[in-house]
Amino acid sequence: MATFPGNPSMAQxxxxxxxxxxxxxxxxxxxxxxxxxxxxxxxxxxxAATLGVSVATANRFARALEFEGYPQFRAALVLGFEAxxxxxxxxxxxxxxxxxxxxxxxxxxxxxxxxxxxxRQALDAQSCEQAVAAILKARRIYIAGFGSSSWLxxxxxxxxxxxxxxVQLLASVESSSYGARLLARLKPEDLLIAIAYPRxxxxxxxxxxxxxxxxxxxxxxxxxxxSPLAPLASVALYAHTESQYFANSEATVLALIEALCSAVAHxxxxxLKAATQLAESVLPWLHGNHASRLRADADAAAPAPRKAxxxxxxxxxxx
Length: 319
Description:
Blueprint: H1 8-17, H2 23-34, H3 36-41, H4 44-51, H5 55-64, H6 70-78, H7 82-95, H8 101-121, H9 125-137, E1 141-144, H10 148-160, E2 167-169, H11 176-183, E3 191-195, H12 202-213, E4 218-222, E5 235-238, H13 250-267, H14 271-282, H15 290-301
Helix pairs in contact: 2-5, 4-5, 8-13, 9-13, 10-13, 11-12
């Protein structure tokens, strides 16, 4: 019970009071210990139905554990799961209020706009300069981000690739073990860009800590100074990611990534040449590209070849 996830004191309390519990209450205690996260998210009627007991029995179980009632028991059970359960609780609150589909669209877009504006206002000019300088001077750039951050990392890698010689994404089918292997090659002249937002993936933090211990500079893209990435970073850029329905607003992070890559493109040497080469390289894959239209136009404008004349027969002259 000492390894009970979330709030260890709940396991200790159940262990202390277990001899005094009734058979039904012991059944409930076993379920809570085996499924603490599920129990923390269930209203009393749902927990009672799951275990086949009455709501009154569930209330008496909470009081048997020396709580005033079920709400106090559930609040204690949530302790230690706050970050994990935050999106669940926010969604629960939103679903309690009726809204049309159009209302949800408008609200989500308004929140993204608000998050981006807060992120813009909180930008630190020196940190922006340091982030761009770190990217442009790095010999190699590795991007670490797992979960939803792996998708954001892929977009970051794609946007930096035209202006940086060696940019690699550590998220792969091999997961963090692939990143662990590659990180062993990093040197102080390289750069690790680590992306983590609540709920923070431990793999990203672990890889960032290993890079930090090896003296590798770290650019952190995260949400606040209390993020576990912040103390490991040489420089950090922060994004407000509040969302009513999800753990984070990915739109805000994407906006920050686009801003960062725009600054890199503006500051990089030969950025115009790189953009031109990129445009030329993708041209054959673009629908209705100029080359095909030119060929079609040229074919249409070419004069039709003249047909060989058939010699006409001279009319017979009557004698």
